[in-house]
Write a structure and sequence with these properties.
Blueprint lengths: L15 E4 L5 H8 L3 E3 L11 E3 L11 H18 L6 E11 L5 E4 L6 E8 L6 E4 L20 E4 L5 E6 L3 E4 L8 E10 L3 E2 L8 E2 H7 L1
Antiparallel strand pairs: 1-9, 2-3, 3-4, 4-11, 5-10, 6-9, 6-11, 7-8, 7-10, 12-13
Length: 214
């Protein structure tokens, strides 16, 4: 049978949101009392957002329950959505503080497979914004923007939600126009065993094994 007027949408970006249902008052108090430094140093005056000095916050006993929730969500994302056989675990993890008039520039997370953001406090003016990697070189005039012609998308997030996405996905945070401080926790991941790829597909690499050889 011939295919008439068929639209294919390959190579989708899997962005997954889950909700933490437990009370997180104590965890939020812990996050607010961490030591914060300007993200990017004093050269970041234009963005004025802050990150925790601590870069392994998910290892803190105070965040154990949230860490368990994040790991469970990662396991679902890799095994059920990506259908991968290798498990990923958080590597670096840090908290972010965005006061009024602060923002976060477009960026990706190098040296990571899947990245995520967990939200302790957010506002309507600070959704996470994802940007298309292969943007149109030449543009037509559009009546409406949709998933096919758009080059960015705002994803509204509420407190207690976790969003997971491939670490190579460009994202940013718009200017916080509210007087409510936005607090979030970001993290990177890598495989639990240090293995990536597949031997049958000639993409296999065991980082721990190669480090041992040297």
């Amino acid at each position: 049978m011939s295919k008439v007027n068929e639209l294919l949408t390959p190579f989708s970006t899997p962005i997954h949101i889950t909700k933490y249902e437990k009370d997180m008052t104590k965890e939020f108090d812990f996050v607010k009392n961490l030591d914060y430094v300007m993200n990017g140093g004093e050269s970041n005056q234009a963005n004025r957002n802050y990150k925790s000095s601590k870069t392994d916050v998910l290892k803190s006993p105070e965040l154990q329950t949230i860490n368990d929730f994040i790991q469970k969500s990662l396991d679902y994302y890799t095994s059920q959505i990506l259908e991968a056989t290798q498990r990923v675990i958080p590597t670096l993890s840090w908290t972010n503080k965005n006061p009024q008039n602060s923002r976060h520039h477009e960026h990706v997370h190098p040296n990571s497979i899947i990245s995520g953001v967990f939200y302790f406090s957010t506002t309507d003016t600070t959704p996470i914004k994802f940007h298309k990697a292969d943007r149109w070189g030449l543009k037509l005039e559009y009546k409406n923007f949709n998933n096919y012609n758009g080059e960015s998308i705002y994803v509204p997030i509420t407190s207690g939600e976790l969003i997971l996405f491939p670490s190579s996905t460009t994202h940013s945070v718009p200017t916080n126009q509210s007087n409510v401080v936005r607090y979030s926790l970001s993290f990177n991941t890598f495989t639990e065993t240090g293995e990536v790829g597949s031997k049958s597909q000639l993409t296999y690499l065991n980082i721990k094994e190669w480090l041992w050889k040297f």
